[in-house]
Structures are given as C-alpha cells and as structure tokens.
C-alpha cells in the first residue's frame, strides 16, 4: 500500500533544459512534503519542502508545486545541470498529527546529459 | 565535518550472528531515526527516538533493538540475523519544533548490511 508514489523510475534531460519530477500521494492527512536528492553510496540530502498551506515554494533553480485537490506535487529544476544527476525521493508527513514518520516514494533517477 | 555519521559503512556477516550499527549526529538535534532501504528501494522508517525516548516503532521484529545512550547517538543492534535483513540502513536526525512539529531530517551515509 504505497501512500507516496513516484511512477517514473527514471528521467533523462538535456543540460540547460527543465527537469520535472512528479509525485502522487493518497493520504489526505499529509500536510508537509519534501524532496530529497540521493547520490550513490550517500544518504538522502534534503532539497526543498512545501507545506499544504502553499501551492508553490522556490529555492534557486528548484521549485516545488503542490496541487492538493489532485494530491500531486512536482519538482522543477531549471536549468538542469549534470551535477543534478541523482535519485530524487518525494516524502510526505502529517505534521499536524505530531510525530508521524516521513513516508517516502520509491524515487526517480534523473540523468542530465551534457 | 560530518553532520550524521554511521559505522560501519559496510557489514557482511552470516545468518544467526548478532551485529550493531552505530550512529552519531553533531547537529544538536533532539530526534533520531533508523530507516531501512530494501531491495525494492523503498525507504521505510523503523524507529524514532526523541530525547532518548522511543516514539515510533513501526512493527519491526524484536530482533532489532535500538538504543539511545544520549541525544546525539542512536545505535541499532540486530540479533539472530536473517537473509531478509540484508538492506541499507540509514540513520537520520531532526529537530522537533513546537506542538510536536518535526522539521527536515538529515541522513547519514548508510550502512550496507549483507547477510550470507
């Protein structure tokens, strides 16, 4: 029973273009969403987050969009760089419910081609 | 200047053995976690400790016993290892804010456990 789904296991994008990574969730109690980036043999690194009271959060080249009615969020990377090549995990939690754990998607492997 | 460190990075052992993985964070966080990433690549929470007290235990077999000697350390001891325990184990930490809100988690590099 996957509460957080990343349906694209991989994505290839040319350097300089936009990368769009998608994530869907099923639990309507989720109110906080995060994106993590993971390089091989390293732990996930926090990238950007968004609260359910917002529909967009931007940090430099990274923007996360949240569509609550569709239970969908996406991460946009513009412009994409070769160093962005990594596995990206979407995660969600119910902060309003206190100490609930993060629920992760399966990840999407992004390859940025020079 | 590692924020969340784990030892060992790799661990190969035989079925039935007992092993421990150590985790330390120097971020001053009050909450620490253990996650398991299995062969299907899902990252799943196992345990969470806040100020040395267990707050989350996600139906993990009792062969797994976490121990938090202080806020900066969370160790994982595994008894009678089984083939299915082979996975990458990640430690993480975060700071708990007001009303129980937990902020972003910071992960260690992972420990790849192989049980033969």
Can you describe what's shown?
- The complex is a heterodimer of chains A (114) and B (116).
- The model of chain A has no long low-confidence stretch (mean pLDDT 93).
- In chain A, 0% of the residues lie in helices and 53% in strands.
- Chain A is an all-beta fold and 114 residues long.
- Chain A has strands spanning 4-5, 10-14, 19-25, 32-38, 45-51, 56-59, 62-67, 72-77, 86-93, 103-104, 108-113.
- Chain A is globular.
- Chain A is built from no helices and 11 strands.
- With 116 residues, chain B is mainly β.
- Chain B has no helices and 11 strands.
- In chain B, the strands form 2 sheets. In chain B, strands 2, 4, 5, 6, 9, 10 and 11 form a 7-stranded mixed beta sheet that branches. In chain B, strands 1-3-8-7 form a 4-stranded antiparallel beta sheet, with no helix packed on it.
- The radius of gyration of chain B is 14 Å and the shape is globular.
- The mean pLDDT of chain B is 89.
- The chains are: A mainly beta (114), B mainly beta (116).
- Chain A binds chain B through residues 34, 36, 41-46, 49, 89, 93, 95, 98-99, 101-104, 106-107, and chain B through 4, 31, 33, 40-45, 48, 50, 55-56, 58, 90, 92, 96, 99-102, 104-110.
């Amino acid at each position: 029973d996957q509460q957080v789904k990343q349906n694209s296991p991989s994505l290839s994008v040319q350097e300089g273009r936009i990368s769009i990574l998608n994530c869907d969730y099923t639990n309507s109690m989720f109110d906080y969403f995060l994106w993590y980036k993971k390089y091989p043999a390293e732990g996930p690194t926090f990238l950007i987050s968004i609260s359910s009271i917002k529909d967009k959060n931007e940090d430099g080249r990274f923007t996360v969009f949240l569509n609550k009615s569709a239970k969908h969020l996406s991460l946009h990377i513009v412009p994409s760089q070769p160093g962005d090549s990594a596995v990206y995990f979407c995660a969600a939690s119910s902060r309003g419910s206190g100490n609930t754990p993060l629920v992760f998607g399966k990840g999407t492997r992004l390859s940025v081609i020079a | 200047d590692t924020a969340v460190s784990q030892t060992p990075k790799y661990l190969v052992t035989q079925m039935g053995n007992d092993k421990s993985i150590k985790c330390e964070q120097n971020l001053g966080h009050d909450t620490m976690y253990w996650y398991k990433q299995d062969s299907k690549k899902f990252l799943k929470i196992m345990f969470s400790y806040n100020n040395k007290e267990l707050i989350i235990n996600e139906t993990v077999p009792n062969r797994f016993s976490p121990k938090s000697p202080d806020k900066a350390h969370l160790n994982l001891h595994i008894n009678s290892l089984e083939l299915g325990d082979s996975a990458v184990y990640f430690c993480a930490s975060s700071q708990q804010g007001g009303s129980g809100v937990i902020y972003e988690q910071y992960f260690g590099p992972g420990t790849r456990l192989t049980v033969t």
